[in-house]
């Protein structure tokens, strides 16, 4: 028998794509697959078009964004594109003095520390990011049946960059602020939630078919701190776009937070490679679609190793209401792109 939301016929509408179908907990014609950081330094065609153009400048050039976003779709035949942008783009757009430094990541000129710093975070409006609206519009036209995933950073991960001033392994200033001045922390995160929610809404209004909220570094927190200091703000972001397109909520090292991250309001829970999909399904009560979770480092192993692991992950994913195949985190820069293409072919061949 065919379930009512089955994806049995090829459709020109991305809302009927394998990705959106799986995200909504339906049976797609094959397990959809895309890769976090699929656009970028693993691709020679990316390096070529980015040459001499700083990262943040490139994010504000709709023609270039369109080309870079399409590159992995053309090359690998993945089931979704993800907008080429960055989680700090909306912060830059409202005037925060920051840059993305090659080989480092986002660097904030004056890290946030006091209540006065909140003045540097006005509300985001669509007028701040016209180039996002333009890029998404042109991408949706180019992509046809292939869905475009929009995204944002979650309040905790954005706050970490603002407070630390750049990438951090310890998140020491962030944790000190969170616990030392909870009122300021909550006000900071409330502003970031407005910015993140609006950034998602802009992408949906321009035609994105799904969204992912990246709380990349929230795995640094114990569960009690997550629930008290972070979850309400992530919930607000997810709530902004509820009922519009499927939502994916992802973080790294979040095995202990997975049930809470799912309950914060999402259709799909992103799973990193540390936790098996079987455990992820169990921890979230079988109530959510799952996305993941091949270890990006395994792409450097011999093909038979990769093949066995991919088959295992696809099998484990069948226990969830829907499964989107992905890596457990982003593609590493030195990855051989032909291995990614081979993974896509394998996942599709498994039905
Ligand atoms: O000059 C360059 O090429 C810089 C490298 C680069 C790229 C290609 C950065 C700097 N950002 C991006 C694009 C990007 N960033 C995308 C779109 C590309 C795609 O996925 O195909 C996305 C979704 C992001 C989101 C992003 N930026 C996240 C969340 C995803 C994740 O990997 O967890 C995070 C944490 C960032 C911050 C960031 N931006 C760039 C770097 C190197 C980092 C991480 C720095 C750190 O370790 O803290």
Automatic annotation (TrEMBL):
Main location: cytoplasm
Domain Uroporphyrinogen decarboxylase (URO-D): 32-41, 149-165
Keywords, sorted A to Z: Cytoplasm, Decarboxylase, Lyase, Porphyrin biosynthesis
GO terms for biological process, alphabetical: protoporphyrinogen IX biosynthetic process
Subcellular location: Cytoplasm
Cross-referenced SUPFAM superfamilies: UROD/MetE-like (SSF51726)
ATP-binding is among the record's keywords: no
InterPro entries linked to this entry: UROD/MetE-like_sf, Uroporphyrinogen_deCO2ase_HemE, Uroporphyrinogen_deCOase
NADP keyword on record: no
Site annotation Transition state stabilizer: residues: 86
EC id: 4.1.1.37
Binding site for substrate: 37-41, 86, 161, 216, 329
Gene3D superfamilies associated with the record: 3.20.20.210
Known catalytic reactions: uroporphyrinogen III + 4 H(+) = coproporphyrinogen III + 4 CO2
Record GO terms (molecular function): uroporphyrinogen decarboxylase activity
Pathways per UniProt: Porphyrin-containing compound metabolism; protoporphyrin-IX biosynthesis; coproporphyrinogen-III from 5-aminolevulinate: step 4/4
Domain of life from the UniProt record: Bacteria
Transmembrane segments: none
GO CC annotations on file: cytosol
A family per Pfam: URO-D
Biased composition, class Low complexity, residue ranges: 1-12
Function recorded in the entry: Catalyzes the decarboxylation of four acetate groups of uroporphyrinogen-III to yield coproporphyrinogen-III.
Family, per entry: Belongs to the uroporphyrinogen decarboxylase family.
Subunit and partners: Homodimer.
Name of the protein described by the UniProt record: Uroporphyrinogen decarboxylase
Source species of the chain: Ornithinimicrobium ciconiae
Lineage of the species this protein comes from: Bacteria, Bacillati, Actinomycetota, Actinomycetes, Micrococcales
């Amino acid at each position: 028998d065919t379930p009512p939301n089955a994806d049995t016929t090829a459709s020109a509408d991305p809302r009927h794509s394998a990705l959106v179908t799986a995200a909504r907990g339906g049976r797609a014609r094959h397990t959809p697959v895309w890769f976090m950081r699929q656009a970028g330094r693993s691709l020679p065609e990316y390096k070529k078009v980015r040459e001499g153009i700083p990262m943040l400048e490139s994010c504000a050039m709709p023609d270039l964004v369109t080309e870079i976003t399409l590159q992995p779709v053309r090359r690998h035949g993945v089931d979704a594109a993800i907008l080429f942008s960055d989680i700090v783009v909306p912060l830059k757009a409202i005037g925060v003095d920051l840059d993305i430094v090659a080989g480092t990541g986002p660097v904030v000129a004056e890290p946030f520390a006091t209540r006065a710093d909140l003045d540097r975070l006005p509300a985001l409006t669509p007028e701040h990011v016209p180039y996002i609206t333009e890029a998404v519009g042109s991408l949706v036209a180019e992509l046809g049946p292939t869905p475009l995933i929009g995204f944002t950073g979650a309040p905790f991960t954005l706050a970490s960059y603002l407070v630390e001033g750049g990438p951090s392994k310890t998140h020491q200033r962030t944790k000190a602020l969170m616990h030392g001045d909870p009122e300021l922390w909550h006000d900071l995160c409330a502003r970031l939630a407005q910015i993140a929610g609006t950034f998602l809404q802009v992408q949906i209004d321009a035609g994105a078919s799904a969204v992912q909220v990246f709380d990349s570094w929230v795995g640094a927190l114990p569960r009690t701190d997550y629930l008290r200091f972070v979850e309400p703000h992530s919930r607000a972001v997810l709530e902004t776009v509820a009922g519009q397109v499927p939502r994916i909520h992802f973080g790294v090292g979040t095995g202990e937070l997975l049930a809470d991250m799912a309950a914060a309001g999402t259709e799909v829970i992103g799973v990193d490679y540390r936790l098996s999909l079987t455990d992820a399904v169990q921890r979230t009560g079988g109530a959510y679609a799952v996305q993941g979770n091949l270890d990006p480092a395994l792409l450097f192993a011999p093909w038979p190793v990769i093949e066995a692991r991919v088959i295992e992950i696809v099998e484990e994913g069948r226990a969830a209401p829907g499964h989107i195949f992905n890596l457990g985190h982003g593609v590493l820069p030195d990855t051989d792109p032909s291995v990614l293409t081979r993974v896509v072919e394998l996942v599709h061949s498994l039905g």
